[in-house]
Design goal:
Length: about 300
């Protein structure tokens, strides 16, 4: 069992993390509802007890020492676990879905699909606190303290997860009506060679994503095409914005521009050459205890996912 001095030392270390994350003693104290002096003394007590120096302090700033840098990651993980435990205890005691949920999803999907539904989600659960993290690289849910993550496609290479299917989407070739009027409407993937192509580079691996087409006339053969590199961007929403400007054709998930296509601002072409749809999942770590607020969020996502549908 931890001694009282060990418990006090641990609490002081957690205060150190809050100070670093806040950027100052005063801001950390404001967030914690305590005094600047109390935050400063917490760090001083830890330094004196263990014979280390965690922070360089001046009148206007703080910076990490070498020892502070070495301790920060481990201390931050402890703080995350303490916050999660505190939130779970509060949720259990109250018997409600109140509390914080950390949600992660790829940046373009967050902007195009998650952000528009946030008002409805928060209205359905006024006591829900959402922390949203951009996840373009497939973050480690446990290491990052993520409760729910949005994943696309095959999950067989991601063990230890529980997945709830939210829906599916196709990748589509699209352009503006004026662009097609000027450049002509492609009838097959081969016709795209004469068009301006807006490519997408996956920032997580640096690879230019190929455009894939399926011959749905009977053979089912997949055609692979690497777009020319005149226009290449690392954000799908930027690629879609360029498409709407009439700069060329793009091959992107339908959720990037389904509203624009519905309104007629953009047009899908080569619809008969679509690949099978890509599934969308809400995933969480496979744990015995899942807070009600996490289950509620997943249910709300599933309920609202119909707004991503594209046919």
């Amino acid at each position: 069992m931890a001694t009282p001095s060990a418990q006090s030392s641990l609490l002081n270390l957690l205060q150190f993390v809050r100070i670093v994350d806040a950027g100052s003693f005063a801001e950390a104290a404001r967030r914690a509802g305590t005094s600047t002096s109390a935050m400063s003394k917490a760090v001083s007590r830890f330094e004196a007890l263990h014979g280390v120096k965690l922070l360089h302090r001046t009148t206007h700033s703080i910076s990490l020492t070498h020892d502070g840098e070495k301790l920060l990651d481990g201390a931050r993980n402890l703080l995350r676990q303490a916050e999660r435990l505190e939130a779970y205890i509060g949720e259990t005691a109250a018997g409600s879905s109140a509390g914080r949920v950390r949600l992660a999803a790829p940046g373009p999907f967050l902007r195009a699909c998650i952000a528009p539904m946030l008002p409805a989600i928060l209205k359905a659960n006024p006591n829900l606190e959402l922390e949203i993290k951009v996840d373009d690289t497939g973050l480690d849910l446990a290491a990052e303290g993520i409760d729910v993550a949005i994943r696309f496609g095959d999950l067989s290479g991601q063990p230890g997860l529980i997945a709830k299917r939210l829906g599916a989407f196709p990748y589509i070739i699209a352009a503006t009506p004026k662009y097609l009027e000027f450049m002509g409407r492609p009838k097959s993937p081969a016709d795209l060679e004469s068009h301006h192509q807006i490519g997408y580079r996956d920032a997580s691996n640096g690879q230019l994503s190929p455009w894939l087409f399926c011959d749905n006339s009977g053979t089912g053969a997949v055609t692979r095409m690497v777009p020319r590199n005149r226009f290449v961007v690392e954000d799908m929403t930027v690629a879609w914005a360029m498409t709407l400007r009439g700069l060329g054709v793009s091959w992107l998930p339908a959720w990037c521009g389904s509203k624009d296509i519905s309104s007629g601002r953009a047009v899908e072409v080569l619809k008969d050459w679509r690949l099978p749809e890509t599934p969308v999942y809400a995933v969480q770590l496979d744990r015995k205890q899942v807070p009600q607020r996490t289950r509620d969020l997943i249910d709300l996502l599933a309920l609202r996912a119909k707004s991503w549908d594209y046919s």
